[in-house]
TrEMBL record:
Annotated protein name in UniProt: Xanthine dehydrogenase family protein subunit M
Domain annotation FAD-binding PCMH-type: ranges: 1-222
Cleavable signal peptide: none
SUPFAM superfamilies linked to this entry: CO dehydrogenase flavoprotein C-terminal domain-like (SSF55447), FAD-binding/transporter-associated domain-like (SSF56176)
InterPro entries for this protein: CO_DH_flav_C (IPR005107), CO_DH_flav_C_dom_sf (IPR036683), Diverse_Substr_Oxidored (IPR051312), FAD-bd_PCMH (IPR016166), FAD-bd_PCMH-like_sf (IPR036318), FAD-bd_PCMH_sub1 (IPR016167), FAD-bd_PCMH_sub2 (IPR016169), Mopterin_DH_FAD-bd (IPR002346)
Pfam family, one: CO_deh_flav_C
Length: 330
């Protein structure tokens, strides 16, 4: 492991200034992703700037009925929070579907949103990878890509974004609060992560030095759930995951939210399926047609075509469960 310096700035402004002045520095939060990548020399910072004590560790009520989650709140604390469990249950379920107790106790809200892809070639410095080393090529395109993207990928990169927590945050219209030297920015979660295009080395829209300070959740209380399909029951990343909520009034769908994980370089909000379902009766046929319309844009790779019917079936099953339909008949 490459030697590095460790700094503990006094406040957010000092941390951002330090990052501006150090060309090869990285922020350190829980370290559960960054330190692993340093051990295999995928990340090689000269300086670690510890920010874990600089941002809030509180989950606060917002005046509109929403919640503000400080960037340093642990994943476990978010999942266990009474207000999150009551009003945002898909978020609590998604966090509990990820990693392990020990990791969730240490991983932070901010760090979770910035974890790097689990593409095996990204983590192997011997292999070409445009995300790790721009211009070297994408080993996964013709190599092992069974667990990688089917939507929104490019010839430069077919990686997926691995976070479970980010999937319900996309469905909830969460907003990421970011502090830079020029002030604060509020970025909708659905615009925070990028598609790879020709620059897969950039996972998100953060500018250098910008620090996540909090995540705002708008008021929400519709019934919701998260389902994660993976190769083994624990300690594995999603092949496909779905965060969904459904609000029915007078026999028709008043509001529906669907976001997909394990499918793309970012949490994938199923805008088309949602648009089709609003104002329709909540039936299995409608769920199926909407899921298929959303997935029509999928472009599976050689070995991951199974994700298309898998995602469709999970969406239909989840919406049916939320609508209390027991006979899905797939
Ligand atoms: C074995 C294992 C299994 C896992 N399984 C899952 C899983 O199933 N599902 C899942 O979703 N996750 C899983 N994870 C990933 C885990 O959730 C992340 O490692 C964790 O959320 C990262 O948080 P952290 O605070 O430790 O971030 P760190 O590792 O400290 O940082 C990650 C990145 O974010 C940057 N950063 C951190 N905080 C900020 C901030 N406030 N502002 C700006 N930059 C910041 C750092 O510079 C770094 O680049 C797993 C991890 C491991 C090791
Ligand atoms: S899919 Fe992306 S992360 Fe994986 S090898 Fe290709 S460029 Fe690298």
């Amino acid at each position: 492991m490459k030697p590095f310096r460790y700094e503990q700035p006094a406040d957010v402004t000092s941390a951002i200034t330090m990052m501006r002045d150090e060309p090869h520095a990285a922020y350190l939060a829980g370290g559960t992703n960054l330190v692993d990548l340093m051990k295999v020399e995928v990340a090689t910072p000269d300086v670690l700037i510890d920010i874990r004590t600089l941002t809030s560790k509180q989950i606060e009520d917002l005046p509109d009925g929403g919640l503000r989650i400080g960037a340093a709140v642990s994943n476990s604390e978010i999942a266990a929070d009474r207000r999150v469990r009551r009003n945002y249950s898909m978020l609590s379920q998604a966090i509990l579907a990820g990693a392990s107790y020990q990791l969730r106790n240490w991983a932070t809200a901010g760090g979770n949103l910035l974890q790097r892809t689990r593409c095996s070639y990204f983590q192997d410095v011997e292999m070409p990878c445009n995300k790790r080393e721009p211009g070297t090529g994408c080993s996964a395109l013709q190599g092992h890509h069974r667990d990688l993207a089917i939507i929104g990928h490019s010839p430069s990169c077919v990686a997926t974004f691995p976070s479970d927590m980010a999937v319900p945050l996309a469905a909830l219209n969460a907003v990421v609060r970011v502090q830079g030297l020029d002030g604060e920015r509020m970025i909708p979660l659905t615009d925070f992560h990028r598609l790879p295009e020709d620059t897969p080395d950039r996972d998100n829209v953060l500018e250098r030095g910008e620090l996540i300070t909090a995540i705002d959740l708008p008021a929400f209380s519709a019934p919701s759930a998260y389902r994660k399909v993976r190769d083994r029951a624990s300690y594995a990343f999603a092949l496909v995951s779905v965060a969904a909520s459904l609000e029915i009034a007078d026999g028709v769908i008043k509001d529906v939210r669907i976001a997909l994980g394990g499918m793309a370089h970012k949490p994938w909000r199923a805008w088309e399926a949602e648009r089709m379902l609003r104002s329709l009766a909540p039936t299995v046929d409608h769920f199926q047609v909407a899921a298929e319309a959303e997935l029509a844009q999928a472009q599976p790779l050689r070995d991951n075509g199974f994700k298309v019917p898998l995602a469709r079936n999970v969406i239909v099953r989840m919406l049916s469960d939320l609508a209390n339909i027991t006979e899905v008949g797939q």
